[in-house]
Amino acid sequence: MVGKSKRELAERILELVGGADNVVMATHCITRLRLNLRDDSKVDLEALKGLEGTLGAQVKDGQWQVIIGPQVESVYRELEPLLGSMKLRGEVGVDDDQPELKKSGRVQIFDIISGIFSPIIPALVAGGIIKGILAVFAGFGMDTSAGDWAIFSMISDIPFYFLPFLLAVSCADKFKVNRSLALCVAGSLMYPTIVNAIGTGETPLTLFGFALPIFTYADSVFPVIFGVAGLALVYHAIDKLVPDLFKLVVVPAVSLAIVIPLNLLVLAPIGAWCGIGLANGIVWLFSTLGPIAGFLLGFFMPLIVLFGMHQSTSPIQISNIATLGYDYLLPVSFCHNLAESGAAFGAALRMKDEKLKSAAFTCAFSAFMGISEPALFTVQVPNRTPLYSAMIANGIGGALTVVLGVKCFGFVMPGITSLPVYMDPSGNAWNIIAIVICIALTWVIAMACSFVLWGKSKGSLKAKSEVAA
């Protein structure tokens, strides 16, 4: 998709959602353009679904989602001159006499999570991939902690060690508060006094006679999110009370003076305990239910992705990696993408129309590389049986990841290029062998089921294309 066509696609999308004046806020995740609108009745949903350059469209919790695929960020950038940066950052106000706008623009929990984590995923993926490659080299006996390798080891650690700062920026945009103040909140968690106290076990800071709890906030997720959320509440409350003449001097200073002590004493420790609790909960769930937990998560993963809720697991995955050193959920997501790939490939083998066959093969390759939405929206959902095949195969694959004890040692997008991250840092090759077994079996089962079940459902990709035409 060249630059001109991206601009044309952005312009056409705006036209079909009622124009720029109808857009309150525009954001995006890995594959979807997400729009909050003033008047839903102005949207031509069927035209959006059939628009060339998109993979579908839907409305979820009052938010319009246009599925574009890996090109979504480029299309999103073309929206800036059309909408303005205020709408892209969600800083457009809502009038009190527009109750419908308030309802459609209300931020739901999954939208919050997506808005916070989507902007920082490239940095986390970069660190995870480099860390995985270093683990592969270590498996061949190389010392990756010294010499020329040391700087690459540092690069792989930076996005995770300074995760609170990355989250502070995205949280500031999501909660509509000044980025610099949000970074100050993150900085309080990473201040040398706090960091140095971790090694000694001492509690060097007190507030009103209470010793501040000390946690390792590097790699943490929830402490900074809670802190910036608290900052937003305090900042906006004070901003309403202080006269305009004194806002610049009073509001930032008072906000930090209130929020940082509150965060260090209450919010950040609660966030740290939440992260530890989630990690322990995942361990308990998988150790108690075993393969059943893996099967259920895998079986429903296509539906979770379909409704745009898959990023709700990102904080859990990152928290697991920070707390345990590995994650159980990412291997199931890896199997999911391979299930989508296999199901699309199996369906393509049965298709008669050459254009549709080519599209299905392309979708299969995209899912193989880690982007499953093209296959899900273009092949699986319209034809039904490939969707059922992907669900069955991923359920089996998810159960197998538990049986074989597969772990992911870095936060990555779950595609074939993420394989190095499954290399055990200790150099043991079993984990990467196990994930290869899981994804290969998942792909084969999905492909076979999709091939065998093809035509046993009334839905068809051909019918959809004819309607769109």
How do the strands of the widest beta sheet line up side by side? Answer: 1-2-4-3
Tell me the Rg in angstroms.
24 Å
Low-confidence stretches: 91-107, 458-469
- SSE order: HEEHEEHHHHHHHHHEEHHHHHHHHHH
The biggest sheet amounts to: 4 strands, antiparallel
Mean pLDDT: 83
Shape: globular
**Into how many domains do the coordinates divide?**
3
Number-wise, the strands total: 6
Domain PTS EIIB type-1: 7-89
Membrane topology: Multi-pass membrane protein
Main location: membrane
Keywords: Cell membrane, Kinase, Membrane, Phosphotransferase system, Sugar transport, Transferase, Transmembrane, Transmembrane helix, Transport
